[in-house]
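Troubleshooting: if your tokenizer reports a length mismatch, compare your output against this known-good record of 249 residues.
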Amino acid sequence: MDIHKSKPVHSLREFLSEITVVVCGILIALALEEGLRVAHDHSIAREALETVREEIRQNLSYMGGRLATQACVERRLDEIGDILAASDEGTPLRTPNWVGQPSVWYLTDQRWLAATASGRASLLPPGEQGPLSGVYGVMTRFNDAERQEQAAWAQLRGLESWHGPLGPVARVHFLEALQHSRLELWETRVTIEVARLRAKELGIVEDAPKTMGNGYSIPHAVCLPIDTPRAKALEILSKDGSPQLGQPK
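Known-good structure output:
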């Protein structure tokens, strides 16, 4: 086995030449390493962005599903308002058979949280990070509005089992729940509009409105007529597929 010994440097010129070769080699290696790192970061950022954008599209489709029942929610609140307006002192309440509830659509943010926690979100272009965070902020407000809305409707469903006339305290209680329900209905509508607008600015277009699996939500419960017997309403909603909007069975 031949071992080639390095040749002694006989002049400053030869020394500088050797140093130049070594330095160039180091710089080339560093440049290649940096290029690989940048390419890797770009690939991770692109993957994270695609995942987050898909989650936003899914959430927008859920919002579309909620928006499809807004007319039913408004009509039911008007009907309850009419019942409360007609409840004079000493007059038995015209008890509704079925109040129902608005549909529930739980928007997710797991992919965005995962991207943020892992540091992948920081690899996104600055022009993407802020707008994406803003979209998720609006969707969080939508979730909050739905939770508040469900609490108010739980109070309104107390009218189904009420017996006799409404006293002043009970009337105030139900009127407050009614106004709270109207407020959260407005909040859901506004957050849907804002989320759609911000997503559109990012070039994200929602899919067709989706429906959730049986047992996860009851999208059209509020669309059943207010005089539907409760047992019949539960029977309808327990079957596969909900009644079509505006055509309750």
